[in-house]
Amino acid sequence: QQQVKQSPQSLIVQKGGIPIINCAYENTAFDYFPWYQQFPGKGPALLIAIRPDVSEKKEGRFTISFNKSAKQFSLHIMDSQPGDSATYFCAATGGTSYGKLTFGQGTILTVHP
Amino acid sequence: GAGVSQSPSNKVTEKGKDVELRCDPISGHTALYWYRQSLGQGLEFLIYFQGNSAPDKSGLPSDRFSAERTGGSVSTLTIQRTQQEDSAVYLCASSLDGNTYEQYFGPGTRLTVT
Prior knowledge:
The structure holds two protein chains of two kinds. By secondary structure, chain A is mostly beta strands. Helices cover 0% and strands 56% of the residues of chain A. In chain A, strands 2, 4, 5, 9, 10 and 11 form a six-stranded mixed sheet that branches. In chain A, strand 7 (62-67) and strand 8 form a beta hairpin. Chain B is globular. Chain B contains no helices and eleven strands. By secondary structure, chain B is mostly beta strands.
């Protein structure tokens, strides 16, 4: 019940495209859903996060869509750039978990020029 | 301000040796987390500190793993009698407190056990 399932494992788009990464969770106690971006050799960097009281959150070119009834959330990257090429992780926490994050398996995004 | 720092950045050790990994959280952050990132297992939670106490150690893989935090700041993760399966990147993250979920990660320590 603690799993977060992420898809796809890898994604290739052209510059300007809109990659979409999807995650699904099982634990209904989760109430905070962040996305992290990780470049090779670096730690994950917090990109954007959402709580279940809203269905969408936008920060710059990054948008999270959240579907509470389906227990799914997704990351959309508008006008993607080669510099967005990285690994993206969704995560979830909440309930009595002290904020510890349960991560998806990651998506390797490649944006071609 | 300074972010989360970890040292060393890389550590190569022989099987059976003990290693210590250090984490300096963001100043003022009372919550500290250790995670492990490996190819096969992804990002896994190890232990959570609130101040100097560890209310959640549920992710520690075995009794060879231990961690402490002193002065509500620096934390050390110790792995005794290292095994090859311990090879991974060990990541530390901090947040303002255990109820503020925004966690900020350090660059990690890459541990290689030969």
